[in-house]
Design a protein that fits this description.
It comes from Xylaria multiplex. The protein is an alpha+beta fold. It is built from 1 helix and 9 strands; from the N terminus they run H-E-E-E-E-E-E-E-E-E. The chain is 17% helix and 44% strand. A 5-stranded antiparallel β-sheet has the order 4-5-6-7-9.
Length: 144
Amino acid sequence: MQLTNTLFALLSTTALAKTLSTFASTEWTIESLIRSCDAPDDLCTWKFGINTNEEGVDVTECTYTVPATTTEPASQANGGPTTCGVFTITSGWSGQFGPDQGFTVISVVDYAKKLIVYAGYTDASVKNGTVVDPDLSFPVQTLG
């Protein structure tokens, strides 16, 4: 009986790991991302395309604005949620690694399919309205 339980547990774990690794190996590409902030840093506008790399599925264009808060400039503020097609977009900024090491993580969620991508960009890579080149791809994860 104990051997049966052990084998069942092992097979269940293997099946689960395979399912998760299938999702983990899938990537979405964030295309032509650009962040433009106004001079006083009161508002930043992010523009990008979401490419799920699925055959026959068009790229979803997204424009996402993040206003300054009472305590943070727009370039360092958390934002969202905003809807872009079937996706819900939010973002968070972190300066945890010290001066000039800040970064933003944009969460791209497809709630219908229960999938999420965390797209990370350093402040340096999006400075002065520069288009991020090359486009970056990020692993798809399942929502629990």
